[in-house]
Amino acid sequence: MPSYIVTCKDDATPEQVLAAKKHATDQGGKIGHEYTLIKGFSVTFPDDAVQTMEQHEHVKAVEADGEIKTQ
């Protein structure tokens, strides 16, 4: 299953972030890392569930997780 980074909206409360995580697990996802610098988390789940995460009311962005390199 692919992995994604889910970023919640800047004004999301801790309860709203929890609601987004619950939505992800309800869609068959598995929460990986929970971030502290941003309101977000990583999740792995089937491709067809990505669109439902992007439409969640407390989610700002969903991006494919991957390695980042600097020069």
Automatic annotation (TrEMBL):
PANTHER family to which the protein is assigned, alphabetical: PROTEASE B INHIBITOR 2 (PTHR28288)
Any one biological process term the GO annotation gives: vacuole fusion, non-autophagic
Entries under Pfam families matching the protein: Inhibitor_I9 (PF05922)
GO molecular function: endopeptidase inhibitor activity
Family that this chain belongs to: Belongs to the protease inhibitor I9 family.
Coiled-coil region: none
Superkingdom of source: Eukaryota
Signal peptide stretch: none
Protein name: Peptidase
Domain Inhibitor I9, chain residue ranges per copy: 3-70
Organism name: Diplogelasinospora grovesii
